[in-house]
Each structure stands twice: as C-alpha cells, then as structure tokens.
Amino acid sequence: MKKVILALALLFAGTCFAHAQEINELPMYGAKQKTPDQVKADNDFVAWAVRQFGTREKASDDAVRRGFQFLAKADWRMAMKRFNQAWLLLPDKPEVIWGFGAALSYQGKFEESESYFQKALVLVPNNGHLLTDFGFLYQFWATKGTKDKTQRTKRLDRSIELFDQASRLEPSYDRSYFDLAVSLFFKQDYKGAWEKISEAEKLGGKSIDQKFISDLSKKMPRP
Question: Tens of pLDDT along 182-206?
Fold first, then answer.
C-alpha cells in the first residue's frame, strides 16, 4: 500500500512510547511562558533572519518551504522546528498553521492536527494543496488511527470530500487525484479508484505509488 502511509504508520507507532519532546518540536513551542534566555534567543533569531532575508515575510516563507520539504521526507521533527521559526517571524501566517497541522498528523496526533487544519482552512478556504493535506489527515486517521468501523467510514468519507473539493479548485494538482484513489480503494470502490488514477496519470502521475497500483490491480484489473 501507499508508501507514505506505511512510513507514517511507523512514525505513529513510535509516538506510542511516552517521551518528553523538545519545546521546538511542539506547535508554538508548546505555547508556554518562556524564560528570559529563551525570549532573547527568539529575538536574536528574528533579527538574524531579517538580516539574511531582508524582511520577516521572506524569512518566514523560507522557513515554511523548508518545513514542508522535511515533511516530504517524513521528518516531522525538523519540519516542526522550521514551522516554529516561521511562527516566530509571522505568527498569523496561514501556511504556518497549516504546517503545524501537517506535522502533527505525521505524529498521529489526529485531534490536535484536525484543529490546526480547521484554523488554516478558515484563513485560506480555497487552497487545493491545503485541502489535500487535510484530506490526507482523515485518510491516515481512518486507516491507522481507529478500529471503530463507523468512525473509519466517516473519516474516509470526509477525506474523499476534501480531495474532491481540492481537485475542483486546483484541477492540475495530481496528488489530489491519487490520494482520492487511495481513499476510494479503502472504501472498496476499485472502479472509482482506477478512474482517479487515470486522472492523475493525465497530469504526469508523479505522485502515483506503483505499489498501490499493484495492490489495486489485485483487487480489480485495470478497466
């Protein structure tokens, strides 16, 4: 099955063990009162970043970009550190809230992740990439985070709704179609899954995992 889901499952399993996290691995540094030394370190970082990039906006953009690059490698720890830096620079930046939600989903912190995605969606309601990441949260939550059949179905349905909305807003984003195919697979709608794979392939198919194609083919030969 989808290699990203397998990678996340391993990460999720790791979070089942109690361990203290560094504050820079928590959204907004844990939202706790900082020591004077920590405040000074924050101010020094912001001053350095502005010198390097010219403005808070440009520095925050770079931190967000690098955060999502780390997430693409399933490294949520480094991603969260970059999103926190972006938050120091521009705390109301929608992509920062979005990044927090995405990094939390990689840890299996589903309820907290959902909350951040909902906040981000209020700020940027028509972003297909955001909707796709939000849909992936529900897909992962359904397949790896619950054994309750009713909740599994509910979350898969929600993921399908978000992927479909994303593909209509940004029809050239192939990942929305692939992720939608995966959710349809879990719903046992194999014909629908093949249709979405075809849509992704028309856009280049870079997001398509061939292991998933193999699994889908075992359930239903390509029409």
Answer: 999 999 999 999 999 999 999 999 9
Q: What is the pTM assigned to this prediction? A: 0.85
Residue type, 161: E
Q: What is the DSSP string of the chain?
A: --HHHHHHHHHHHHTTS--PPPGGGSGGGGG-PPPHHHHHHHHHHHHHHHHHHSSHHHHHHHHHHHHHHHHHTT-HHHHHHHHHHHHHH-TT-HHHHHHHHHHHHHTT-HHHHHHHHHHHHHHSTT-HHHHHHHHHHHHHHHHHS---HHHHHHHHHHHHHHHHHHHHH-TT-HHHHHHHHHHHHHTT-HHHHHHHHHHHHHTT-TT--HHHHHHHHHHS---
Among 3.20.20.140, 3.40.50.300, 1.25.40.10, 3.40.50.720, what is the CATH number of 126-223? 1.25.40.10
